[in-house]
């Protein structure tokens, strides 16, 4: 019991108070307060409800005992702009060895139905080494004219950003849905869906309706694995590999692997830009329907697929079904090396003969059960005989 009290904290916007001890019976009211009490190995359980964003968490875990912030119901804990103030980030994490799991960040709403305060430029910003952002729904970021006015001064923005400005490395962005980032029907070179400015892993994300790039890299980005993502309707590139405006030194972006991604119906497909090494590779990506599918400078593409991905129900503005239809050329077309063990919905990979390309692994329909001909005949005869008695 004592270990449970030490290793678990609880938050409820409906029944909690920040003067409480953070137990199940007496939860905190804010995620910020729980973060101030968290130690290595702590899991912060956040109950469904609405929470005011614009806070910064700084507590660090360890590699063996990370700090975990978990929405007890996926997307049930919803973070919205506060009535006033709130900074530029919905959630600014500076802690290392931290996992943030299952929250919704909705920049288009506001606490108590109010108009909201300072417009957010970032949904989830993380700068701690080995931090993990997973299973999130992030949308409605940098949509307003005021937000874009700030962005136009040179300040970037993103749905999710993993940043190496403070020296952090090895960050993971996995299993998230990121959409409606930046103003509708406008493009931006500074506001992106998933933004990597360090080393790390980007996998199993569904990213769409983005003013800039869907998945981008800049500053000190290098040694990235970008695998099994689905990106569409980005008004920049679907995926951009590059570096420049360095924080620390001037090393080029090198040794990144981009594989098994669907990059469809964007302004640009996959491109390279800025300072680049010669060891970036692009394998088994479906790149199709973009105004320009490829813009590589030093990297090499192999196993590419140039065909409609054949989603179950493609809708440009969202609200579609972006799983793969049976006829999709992405089915069984991916590389097994480096592919995640499950897809964005937790479906194990592979389901067929090979790994599927994109964020979703197609689950084959169960074959229709058919009785052997003799059994069918016997059943019919029995039924007829019984009816005549």
Rg over alpha carbons: 23 Å
Largest sheet: 11 strands, parallel
Tertiary shape: globular
The percentage helix is: under 10%
- DSSP summary: helix tally: 4
Protein structure class: mainly beta
Spatial order of the strands forming the largest sheet: 1-2-5-8-11-14-17-20-23-26-29
Which stretches are low in confidence, meaning pLDDT under 50 for 5 or more residues running?
1-5, 112-117, 374-389
Strand content: 25-35%
Number of strands: 31
How would you characterize the overall build of this protein?
- The protein has 389 residues and is mainly beta.
- It has a domain at 119-387.
- It is built from four helices and 31 strands.
- An eleven-stranded parallel β-sheet has the order 1-2-5-8-11-14-17-20-23-26-29. Strands 3-6-9-12-15-18-21-24-27 form a nine-stranded parallel β-sheet, with no helix packed on it.
- β30 (311-313) and β31 form a beta hairpin.
- The model is unreliable at 1-5, 112-117 and 374-389 (pLDDT under 50).
């Amino acid at each position: 019991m004592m270990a449970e009290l030490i290793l678990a904290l609880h938050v409820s916007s409906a029944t909690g108070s920040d003067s409480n001890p953070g137990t199940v019976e007496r939860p905190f009211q804010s995620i910020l307060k729980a973060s101030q009490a968290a130690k290595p190995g702590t899991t912060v359980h956040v109950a469904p409800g609405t929470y005011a964003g614009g806070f910064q968490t700084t507590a660090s875990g360890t590699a063996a005992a990370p700090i975990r912030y978990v929405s007890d119901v996926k997307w049930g804990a919803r973070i919205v702009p506060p009535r006033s103030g709130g900074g530029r980030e919905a959630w600014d994490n500076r802690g290392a060895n931290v996992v943030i799991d299952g929250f919704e960040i909705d920049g288009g709403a506001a606490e108590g139905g109010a108009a909201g305060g300072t417009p957010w430029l970032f949904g989830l910003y993380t700068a701690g080494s080995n931090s993990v952002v997973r299973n999130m729904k992030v949308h409605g970021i940098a949509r307003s004219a005021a937000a874009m006015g700030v962005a136009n001064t040179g300040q970037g923005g993103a749905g999710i950003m993993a940043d190496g400005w403070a020296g952090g490395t090895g960050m993971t962005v996995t299993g998230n849905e990121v959409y409606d980032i930046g103003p509708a029907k406008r493009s931006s070179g500074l506001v992106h869906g998933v933004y990597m400015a360090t080393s790390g892993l980007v996998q199993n994300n569904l990213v769409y309706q983005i003013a800039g790039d869907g998945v981008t890299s800049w500053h000190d980005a290098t040694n990235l694995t970008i695998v099994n993502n689905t990106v569409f309707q980005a008004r920049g590139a679907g995926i951009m590999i590059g570096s420049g405006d360095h924080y620390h030194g001037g090393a080029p972006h090198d040794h990144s692997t981009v594989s098994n991604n669907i990059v469809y119906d964007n302004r640009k497909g996959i491109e390279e830009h800025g300072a680049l090494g010669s060891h970036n590779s692009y394998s088994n990506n479906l790149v199709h329907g973009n105004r320009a599918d490829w813009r590589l400078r030093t990297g090499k593409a192999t196993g590419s697929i140039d065909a409609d991905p054949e989603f179950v129900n493609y809708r440009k503005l969202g609200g579609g079904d972006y799983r793969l239809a049976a006829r999709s050329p992405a089915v069984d077309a991916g590389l097994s090396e480096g592919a995640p063990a499950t897809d964005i919905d937790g479906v194990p990979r592979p389901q067929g003969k090979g790994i599927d390309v994109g964020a979703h692994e197609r689950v084959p329909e169960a074959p229709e059960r058919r009785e052997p001909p003799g059994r069918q005949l016997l059943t019919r005869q029995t039924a007829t005989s019984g009816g005549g008695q």
